[in-house]
Amino acid sequence: MSSLNVICPHCLKVNKIPQKDGYTKANCESCKNSLLDTTPIEADENNIDHILANSDIPVIVDFWAPWCGPCKMFAPIFNQTAQKYPLKALFVKVNTEALPNLGARFQIRSIPTLVVFKSGLEKKRNSGALDPLRLTSFINEFI
Ligand SMILES: [Zn+2]
Known about the structure:
This protein is of the alpha/beta class. Helix content is 25%, strand content 26%. It has a five-stranded mixed beta sheet with strand order 3-5-4-6-7, with helices on both faces. InterPro entries: Thioredoxin (IPR005746), Thioredoxin-like_sf (IPR036249), Thioredoxin_CS (IPR017937), Thioredoxin_domain (IPR013766).
């Protein structure tokens, strides 16, 4: 059976899990919390490279800032859509106000900007908030 490396959303430990169509239960070997938790990870300069490099499932990053109205409206759409992808995609947020170096490094010129990474490489980006349907089809290209 092939396996997948996934990042624990709680402690960021890399877990190797069997590849399946769906999962009813999977717990982190380190912190024992559920790997099925889809709450987006708040990334920073210390963990973003670890997350991008070690996730075999696509990583969807929302670059946002607290002062940005469209970002705030988009946040619940991002969180709710994430619930459809346990162990299929990893949802990550980067606060570009608190972390301007990351915004610069990933050349974020407007927010919100969504970037899809696979195997550590950027595959696609979208500037501007998406409605739930468009967000789903944006992600499904990589699932
Ligand atoms: Zn963990």
